[in-house]
Amino acid sequence: MNTVKLIRDELKHAHEAFVGTMDGVTNEVAHRQPGGTAHPIGSRYAHMVVSEDMMINGLLKGGAPLFATDLAGKTGLEDPQAAFITTLEWAQSVQVDLDALNNYAQAVYEATDVYLAMLNEDDLARTFDLTEQNLGTMSLGAFLISFVLSHVRDIMGEVSALKGVYGMQGYPF
Q1: Which of 21, 96, 101, 122 is close enough to 42 for a disulfide, judged by CB 3.0 to 4.6 Å?
Q2: Count of CB atoms within 10 A of residue 33's CB?
Q3: How far apart are CA 98 and CA 26, in angstroms?
Q4: In angstroms, rounded to a whole number, what is the distance separating the alpha carbons of residues 120 and 106?
């Protein structure tokens, strides 16, 4: 089994499942305050997309995120960088434009797939230093699984649970 292909296929499936999980979420639902310390759906979605953009296009590719280049001003967020490290105060106040955020998300997913398509098996074993992020040293493969793929699935679970609380269908399967 080709591990790069496996990661690429799994991430593609996770992105598709996330899109399906977001089905039926309107701007009203995206901004609904769930109470307690839970974050609204729109803020979780924004966090997931911005994080992937920063991890893939910024950290791994060594460039700038799409929100700072090709999609500057077109992300559906006033300050995309604020979505990376979320606070309850930010999550409760952020306003997202779901149509623009959906378009931004698709561009991020495509950029991620292009990046993964360029990798080979040896690349996955390459290690890099994440001590500034308090993560130590990690292989690229472990990072892609633990912090990119798992993050999409984690946030999808949060969105699905909130939709269930709101009486909506969560996961699309």
Answers
A1: 96
A2: 10
A3: 8
A4: 24
Give the span between the Cα atoms of 85 and 55, in whole angstroms: 13
pLDDT tens track, the chain, 173 positions? 799 999 999 999 999 999 999 999 999 999 999 999 999 999 999 999 999 999 999 999 999 999 999 999 999 999 999 999 899 999 999 999 999 999 999 999 999 999 999 999 999 999 989 898 888 999 999 999 999 999 999 999 999 999 999 999 999 98
- Total count of residues recorded for the chain: 173
Asked whether 104 and 49 are in contact (CB, 8 A), the reply is yes
Long-range CB pairs of 149-152, under 8 A, 24+ apart, other chains included: 149/7, 149/10, 149/11, 149/14, 151/48, 151/51, 151/52, 152/11, 152/14, 152/15, 152/18, 152/48, 152/52
Residue 165 has, within 13 A of its CA and on its CB side, a CA count of: 14
